[in-house]
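Chapter review: from sequence to fold.
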Amino acid sequence: VQLQASGGGLVQAGGSLRLSCAASGFSLDYHGIGWFRQAPGKEREGISCISSSDGSTYYSDSVKGRFTISRDKNTMYLQMNSLEPEDTAVYYCAADLAVNARTLCIYYANNPGVVDYWGKGTLVTVSS
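The token string follows.
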């Protein structure tokens, strides 16, 4: 039972990357899902999440208009466009049963121990 994130790497400012996170051993149905990131010396930040109930989304102000979260069956994605050096961080995916997007991204970012599943991080480095 795990989430496996992939797709990180080195990209120049202004470029794009697409992160993937595949669930195995359980179904993402009825789970809120989301992407978080943690830059060196900073707290973990919930940047984009999808509610379990109605598919509504949340985006942090730092990524709104540039990043897009989606899901397809048992995989979630994060399309990242117009990347900036400030986006450099380790990116994590997460899933939690029956949770809305804002709760997952905002409250659970500060309480990671209550989240059902975390993927191992994937490093995104944006060069200037």
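Two observations follow directly from the output. The radius of gyration is 13 Å. The chain has a mean pLDDT of 96.
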